[in-house]
Design goal:
The complex is a heterodimer of chains A (142) and B (238). With 142 residues, chain A is mostly helical. Chain A has 2 domains: 85 residues, Winged helix-like DNA-binding domain superfamily/Winged helix DNA-binding domain (Arc Repressor Mutant, subunit A, Orthogonal Bundle); 44 residues, no CATH class. Chain A has 7 helices and 3 strands; from the N terminus they run ααβααββααα. Chain A has a 3-stranded antiparallel beta sheet. In chain A, helix 2 packs across helix 5, helix 3 crosses helix 4 and helix 6 crosses helix 7. The termini of chain A are far apart. Chain B has one domain: 3-Layer(aba) Sandwich (Rossmann fold), CATH 3.40.50. Chain B has 10 helices and 9 strands. In chain B, the strands form 2 sheets. Chain B has a 6-stranded mixed beta sheet with strand order 5-6-7-3-8-9, with helices on both faces. Chain B has a 3-stranded antiparallel beta sheet with strand order 2-1-4, covered by helices on one side. The longest helix of chain B has 14 residues. Chain B is globular. The chains are: A mainly alpha (142), B alpha/beta (238). Chains A and B meet through helix 2, helix 3 and helix 4 of A and helix 7, helix 9 and helix 10 of B.
């Protein structure tokens, strides 16, 4: 189960950032990708601690925070499950996308690209079809 | 149930000094360790790690200050309540792993045979092989088994990775995780193999020149410095 959770993340933690936060991020990414759907079970704390070779308290902290934010629910004696609340899951996906976008823009701005140059580059690399969609999206916001 | 300070903190050092003839090994060392933590004790050779471990195990007495183990002054009784895994190994090479387990079990009143059998599986140890024919990594795991098969409240692991080649270190680290009971135990791991062990720790105590130069929660440290423990040490240690 842990493999599924960290499928594209190589199961490797970065020791220079808080580990509990990385566990939360990994669950969120798996949710955003759709690898973990509403009501899906995630590994037990013990299992995940073994798998990642981290202290059980670190995993506990991550799970506690995810319970607090409503991302997961733990049923005593059964396990821990991703929420079936679709709004929470959508929010997470949107959140992750916003963060990725911000990182991307920050980097390009640091290289000196202007907004319209960035838009052209994105449009150019994705192709005409996607540009249409993006325009629709823009209209929506207005 | 009445909870006292010492129920929550199986190990307390209060302004502890330790002198050997001509050498100040520890100076002004104070900390307390609550139940449920795995604490990394790190620092260069000669920084006082071993002395600190021996004081906690009741094998040495402080020159000044106070050490409290489970609320009491450590001494002879400590051996029965604290599981100390020394760096050197005292196993008989001619005994099989199974015989070693049976033999050692007779020394400790807090021995749990079911737990020992469970750990034998978890640590993937060959019960019928003589200890003398095991690899270093396997021997280290036998010692972990002997340490964690007890229901000790305080577990002291002195350099558990020393002399073990990198591929087997992961299994030793996993052995520590399999053995650790967060609801009832505290573990102190003295080590200079930070790379393999740092994800194990809740907290780190850094000794340098016999003094505590850093005592912090690991994830707070990572958040504060944005670096791994190794990186932080490069900044903190002289």
């Amino acid at each position: 189960m842990a493999q599924e959770l960290f499928k594209n993340d190589n199961l490797r933690l970065d020791n220079s950032r808080p580990l509990y936060q990385q566990i939360i991020d990994a669950v969120k990414r798996a949710v955003a990708r759709g690898d973990l759907g509403p009501g899906h079970q995630i590994p037990s704390q013990r299992e995940l601690a073994q798998e990642l070779q981290v202290n059980p308290n670190t995993v506990q902290r991550a799970y506690r925070e995810m319970e607090y934010s409503g991302l997961v629910t733990t049923l005593r004696g059964t396990g821990t499950f991703i929420t079936s609340d679709a709004t929470i899951l959508q929010d997470i996906r949107r959140d992750m996308a916003t963060q990725a976008l911000r990182r991307f823009l920050d980097e390009l701005r640091a290289l000196g690209y202007s907004g319209s140059e960035v838009l052209d580059m994105v449009a150019g690399s994705i192709g005409a079809g996607t540009t249409e969609q993006q325009k629709d999206g823009d209209d929506h916001d207005r | 149930m009445v909870m006292t300070m010492t129920d929550n903190f199986p190990l307390i050092f209060q302004d502890v000094y330790k002198q050997y003839p001509g050498v100040q090994a520890l100076e002004e060392v104070s900390f307390s360790i609550p139940t449920g933590q795995i604490v990394g004790l790190v620092g260069p050779n000669g920084s006082g790690k071993s002395t600190l471990m021996k004081l906690a195990a009741g094998l040495l007495r402080p020159s000044r200050g106070e050490v409290r183990v489970l609320g009491r002054t450590p001494g002879r009784w400590t051996k029965a309540r604290v599981a100390f895994m020394p760096e050197v190994d005292h196993l008989y090479p001619w005994m099989t792993v199974g015989q070693t387990i049976d033999f050692v079990s007779t020394f400790f009143p807090d021995w749990e045979s079911d737990r020992a059998r469970e750990l034998l599986d978890l640590l993937e140890l060959p019960a019928h092989r003589p200890v003398g024919k095991l690899s270093k990594g396997q021997r280290a795991r036998v010692r972990l088994l002997l340490t964690f098969a007890r229901s000790a409240t305080l577990v002291l692991l002195d350099e558990p990775l020393s002399g073990i080649d990198p591929p087997s270190r992961t299994r030793v680290v996993n052995g520590i995780l399999s053995g650790f009971r967060p609801e009832s135990q505290s573990v102190i791991v003295s080590t200079h193999e930070i790379f393999e062990t740092e994800s194990l720790f809740d907290r780190v105590i850094v000794l340098s020149g016999g003094r505590v130069s850093l005592d912090a929660e690991m994830d707070q440290l990572r958040a504060g410095y944005g670096r791994s423990l190794r990186g932080v040490l490069e900044e903190v240690l002289p």
